[in-house]
Amino acid sequence: GLFPRPLNQEELSAPNGERILHLFKMLGKFVARSMIDSRIIDIHFNPIFFRIGDAPSTGIKPSLGAVKIVDPGLARSLKTIKKFALAKKEIDEDPNRTAAQKVADTESIVIDNVRLDDLCLDFTLPGYPNIELEDHGSHKRVTIENVDIYLEKVIDMTLGSGVRQQVDAFRSGFSQVFPYSALSAFTPDELVSLFGKVEEDWSLETLTDSIKADHGFNMDSRSVKNLLQSMSEFDVQQRRDFLQFTTGSPKLPIGGFRSLTPMFTVVCKPSEDPYTSDDYLPSVMTCVNYLKLPDYTTIQTMKKQLYKAMKEGQGAFHLS
């Protein structure tokens, strides 16, 4: 899900950094506005984004477990590196070892057949060599003596100081519409669902209760029944394509089809000689959730023409 890329202070002060902060602020306003309008936006947020964003009131701090949710690959690497720190800690706390033994055993620590020095790590953020974790970090090697500090700084840059200003910009934009603190009533996972990752009910029963047939069709019309049957069998991508084609948005509002305003309506699209209904493609009026469906002779023909319109009609605007 969406999560800010870490940025250092130099990047944030540059024109592109200012632009990124502006975009996060605008995103916050957009998300807040969507909540007021009961709209599910097509953005999948990472739940950690909201845990960090609400940190002042919840006290949630960056951790290796949180890194795993944001960047599983980085988390796996850090977990391996942490084994070196834990091995050193175990040696240091062993009362049965002499000081000389502790030094010797620490220098000989091997994890997964690799010594820490073999990893050639420095104090820069993994994957971002331009982001130094401390002054002149690119010239400072990670050793068994400072590996625990390295881990803390990587986690902080990934989930704390490196993304704080982006998250604060989002909060600032959101709060221009209504207080960000209002989100404390929701868990991060609930917010993710609220903003775009939600299961939609496309069952035949729900569709039948949520869609109106008019102007040449009624709910018992063959083509309407075929349409509803086909819609109930759509896969995830087909649902997105259908909604984008018919409503202008790939997601339903909160509450599903029943919450569409105006109500989703299917009407009969007439044919003119020498053509028949099977020769026509469906057309739509997205502003009023209006589907003009030819009275196809078979469900197979309807599916073929509907799928073609869904795929090739994306973004098109014509008189129908």
From TrEMBL:
Q: Which reaction does it catalyse?
A: S-ubiquitinyl-[E2 ubiquitin-conjugating enzyme]-L-cysteine + [acceptor protein]-L-lysine = [E2 ubiquitin-conjugating enzyme]-L-cysteine + N(6)-ubiquitinyl-[acceptor protein]-L-lysine
Q: Name one GO cellular component term.
A: nuclear speck
Q: Which UniProt keywords apply?
A: Transferase, Ubl conjugation pathway
Pathway recorded for this protein: Protein modification; protein ubiquitination
Does the keyword Transferase feature in the UniProt annotation?
yes
- Return the similarity comment: Belongs to the UPL family. K-HECT subfamily.
Write the protein's name: E3 ubiquitin-protein ligase
Source organism per UniProt? Photinus pyralis
List the taxonomic lineage. Eukaryota, Metazoa, Ecdysozoa, Arthropoda, Hexapoda
